[in-house]
Amino acid sequence: MAGEIQTPIRFGIIGCADIARKVSRAITLAPNAVLSAVASRSLEKASLFAKANSFPPEAKIYGSYEALLDDPDIDAVYLPLPTSLHVKWAVLVAQKKKHLLMEKPVAINAAEFDVIARACEENGVQFMDGTMWVHNPRTAKMRDFVSDPERFGQLRTIHSCFSFACDPEFLSNDIRVKPDLDALGALGDAGWYCVRSILWATDYELPKTVLALPGPVLNEAGVILSCGASLHWDDGKLATFYCSFFSNLTMNVTAIGTKGTLHLNDFIIPFQEKEASFIENSQCFFNDLVTAWVPVPSEHIVTTDIPQEVCMVREFSRLVGDVKKGSKPESKWPIISRKTQLILDAVKTSIDKGLQPVQI
């Protein structure tokens, strides 16, 4: 029925990672979701997390992940555990028939992710990774531009960067620098977003060849702290990205077509929560004296009532609601996650092989 109100999807959160604070708030703000439980390996930690993040009083607190998964009242699980734990717990989530919203990177490699995706498929549960920016209304507006043959033309090249400067404490102790927890380091944490932006711009067409750029920085344990790569398509499209734990906070994407250019300076986390902008130029050239651009590039501001992470939770919950009514899970999300992971794997292989090109 049109306008039918969906029963809120009941979320359980496994693990009290920092990012879970943001997603807890998103679940609270989403109109079709509710925080129903949180689990940590210690009851006290789970209880403190629930209090600090305004869980409803009826939310359940669990001192083990298994206990939450055994709760028949939980529809979906948000999983922000370290990457090395994803395959074990994601498979269990799926086997318990819970839908899965999981942090990125989705796995240590694509073979591990295939185990997760298969478990979700066999158990009929919806999978989505936690890449928030693709759900921002701005992203749909940018898609309109890059898909327009008159304004943008054919895509030729994409350049993406995500960096943030980490302090010595982070570089020594954060899970993202530990080979047994998040072995992909900056490539998995920051590079994931760059790769996703490149795939987004190419409408998820995988490149033929991936080549790591010179100068990757690894710590003593072999975890990548900074790296770059170039991606090459058969039709001549080229992309590059750079991700780093050493450089100033930067989140840029530039996509250049035969007729237009898209610029974005805050693609992962908008400068402001309720509005986001992008700059487009189309068929620009110089004026007669070559002292100015004609026409001048235009800035488009897209406002949103709800932040992008709430858009993500709302969309995931909508899909879960559809599955509960008998629809099949939306397959595009695991496919996109797998393509992103495949490129990460190729970059890491290229680095491990002394910057050799890797075929996808």
Please tally the β strands and state the result.
18
Main sheet summary: 10 strands, mixed
The number of helical elements comes to 10
Alpha-carbon Rg, integer = 21 Å
**Element order: H for helix, E for strand:** EHEHEHEHEHEHEHHEEEEEEEEEEHHE
> So, CATH architecture of the largest domain?
2-Layer Sandwich
Please tell me the overall pLDDT: 96
Key structural traits:
alpha/beta; Rossmann fold; Dihydrodipicolinate Reductase, domain 2; 2 domains; ten-stranded mixed β-sheet; 10 helices; 33% helix; globular; NAD(P)-bd_dom_sf
Overview in brief:
The chain has 360 residues and is an alpha/beta fold. The protein has helices spanning 19-29, 43-52, 65-69, 86-95, 110-122, 137-146, 168-173, 185-201, 308-324, 332-352, and strands spanning 9-14, 33-39, 60-62, 76-79, 99-102, 127-129, 155-163, 209-212, 217-218, 224-232, 238-244, 250-257, 260-264, 275-282, 285-286, 293-294, 298-303, 358-359.
Give a verbal description of the structure:
The chain has 360 residues and is α/β, with parallel strands linked by helices. It has two domains: 9-131 and 309-332, NAD(P)-binding Rossmann-like Domain (Rossmann fold); 133-308 and 341-359, Dihydrodipicolinate Reductase, domain 2 (2-Layer Sandwich). The chain has helices at 19-29, 43-52, 65-69, 86-95, 110-122, 137-146, 168-173, 185-201, 308-324, 332-352, and strands at 9-14, 33-39, 60-62, 76-79, 99-102, 127-129, 155-163, 209-212, 217-218, 224-232, 238-244, 250-257, 260-264, 275-282, 285-286, 293-294, 298-303, 358-359. Strands 7, 8, 9, 10, 11, 12, 13, 14, 17 and 18 form a ten-stranded mixed β-sheet that branches. Strands 3-2-1-4-5-6 form a six-stranded parallel β-sheet, sandwiched between helices. Helix 1 (19-29) packs across helix 9 (308-324), helix 4 (86-95) runs parallel beside helix 5 and helix 5 packs antiparallel against helix 10 (332-352). It is globular. The model has no long low-confidence stretch (mean pLDDT 96). This is Gfo/Idh/MocA-like oxidoreductase N-terminal domain-containing protein.
